[in-house]
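Handover notes (outgoing to incoming on-call)

Open items:
1. DNA-binding protein: sequence verified, structure written out, both below. Nothing else pending on this one.
2. Nothing else urgent.
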Amino acid sequence: MNITINDAQGGIEEIKAAVVRELITAHKADFDLITPAQAGGILDLTQKGLDALKLPKVDLLGNGRSIRYRLGDITEKLNERTVKAAKK
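DNA-binding protein structure tokens:
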């Protein structure tokens, strides 16, 4: 990551904001989180079906009530479970 003083006009708050923007851009895939309801809607699965996929869960608040799934984990699981058509 390369941030220069010229990137942030006005002081430390602008520099902090530039660093945060850069970190979010660099690690976007790590933060692409969706709720169980969104994951279920995308995959047309119930919560029981989602649980059967054994996707890694992100517990945002550490209380079991704020579960999210990473889109990258869902994509990876779909790739693992993709069945190739047999050649005729």
